[in-house]
Write a structure and sequence with these properties.
Elements: E1 11-14, E2 20-30, E3 33-38, H1 55-68, E4 72-79, E5 84-86, E6 92-93, H2 99-109, E7 118-123, H3 129-138, H4 177-187, H5 198-202, E8 211-214, E9 231-234, H6 236-242, H7 252-263
Antiparallel strand pairs: 1-2, 2-3, 3-7, 4-5, 4-6, 4-7, 8-9
Helix pairs in contact: 1-2
């Protein structure tokens, strides 16, 4: 494997609002190809040696910014001192791809540790080379050059093997099913954000079905939960959108604000899982 690189310094990833994240990357040319070296999460959680703790959030942001700039993801390498291999992530047009799904695929293919150092090969980014690092770091839209030609070649869809069984161990925040039932009794089974009702749409099959959302993320730690104040019913789509970005949970008001410009004043808009 060739090792021809341009020099590069580490850059920090910032949220769109300018909030700095603990995550770093380097933009490099490797044998004439544009790449991002995205550094591993490591150290002791909460300790002085913790590094790149916002790996997962920042990786999704980087992928979304590549898509906003018109790029295609061509290849992903796992590139650590102990292991170098090509990950099973097919080329994807990031302009239309879901950044969360692309990030999830990359992390899943790392197998034993989903926050290791990776190199992203990409092409077609509509940003001048000298502005790429700042664009990926800060997401500045003014760095995108207008009027770029449509560079994309047709994507070849290949069949791939699925269904391989893997055993994974993880920490999961414990949930009390009785609280979910109590919340539905108190608030009903209609989405508080878009007013969708599974019962209205699917009849008896969907009656009394709804997902229940914790207004304070359950992952924040053990606590007493009051179903009248701490839980609300959300349909599958609204619940997914509330948690769409890892590390950021929208309030119900913030979610409604994103919906209303598109939905107008109509209620009970179909909001089923696609």
């Amino acid at each position: 494997m060739s090792q021809s690189f341009t020099p590069a310094s580490r850059a920090q990833v910032l949220e769109d609002d300018g909030t700095p994240l603990q995550a770093t990357f380097s933009f490099q040319l490797r044998d004439g190809k544009t790449t991002i070296l995205f550094y591993s999460r490591g150290g002791t959680i909460g300790g002085s040696n913790e590094r790149n703790r916002d790996y997962l959030v920042a990786l999704e942001i980087i992928i979304a910014r590549l898509g906003a700039g018109g790029a295609r993801l061509d290849q992903v390498l796992l590139e650590t001192l102990r292991e170098q291999r090509v990950l099973d992530v097919p080329p994807v047009d990031l302009r239309t791809a879901d950044a969360h799904e692309v990030k999830t695929r990359i992390c899943r293919e790392q197998i034993s540790n989903r926050t290791r150092q990776i190199r992203l090969f990409f092409s077609g980014l509509n940003v001048a080379p000298e502005k790429i690092e700042e664009f990926l770091s800060r997401g500045r839209a003014d760095a995108i050059e207008p009027g770029a030609p449509d560079w994309h070649e047709p994507v070849t869809i290949l069949s791939r093997t699925e269904g391989r069984v893997r055993v994974r161990l993880s920490n999961v925040a414990e949930r009390d099913p009785s609280l979910r039932a109590a919340a539905i009794r108190v608030h009903g089974a209609r989405c508080v954000a878009c007013e969708f009702s599974f019962g209205d749409t699917y009849g008896e099959w969907g009656a009394d079905f709804i997902e229940v959302h914790h207004l304070q993320p359950i992952a924040d730690g053990e606590r007493a939960t009051d179903p009248t104040k701490d839980l609300v019913p959300l349909c599958a789509n609204c619940h997914r959108m509330v948690h769409r970005r890892r590390g950021l949970t929208l309030t119900i008001e913030e979610l409604r604000a994103k919906m209303m410009p598109r939905l107008g004043t109509e209620s009970n808009v179909p909001c089923t899982r696609g």
